[in-house]
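Hi there, hope your week has been kind to you so far. It would help a lot if you went through both lines with me. No rush at all, and the record is pasted right below:

***
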Amino acid sequence: MRRVGPKQGQLVLFALALSGVCGVVFAVGVQVGKELGSVPAEETPTWYPITDRTPLAVRDPDLVVYEELLHPPTPTPTATSPPTPAPRATPGLVPTESRPWTVQVLAARSRTEAEAAVARLRRRGYDAYVLRVPAGEGSWYRVRVGHFRTREEAQRVERRLRREEGMEGAFVTAR
């Protein structure tokens, strides 16, 4: 029976040739490394001072989140309203807290968009906040304004938001 395949001498010759090729590649790499070592390194970058000291919120109103973090808005005192009777029961909505009503002005998939809307509303004097609601693979970010004792108070603010801020999608909801 005849054996098929490389002979022992051929395997030795192949191993020697492979070692030779590896040695040549190594030597070339060492030589290239030595030559690169003599190339001067790039100069250090020049830093230029910021000349535009205009606050970021003034330059681009959509980028107010960073400014809000640096300089949080000071709360504005609100007038307290006289005690009012309990709100009428609305079918399907059973408010149980002392301030159960709010106005929703936006629902966005983007947290950045919601936070920008909150910042705009706060600058205009509204008590705005974001409520994150998990939904499927992502979340909805609801932008809401205020915590009202009565539905009527919330409806007044809703009308004002529609009229003065152009928020046509605003609606009153139980928290």
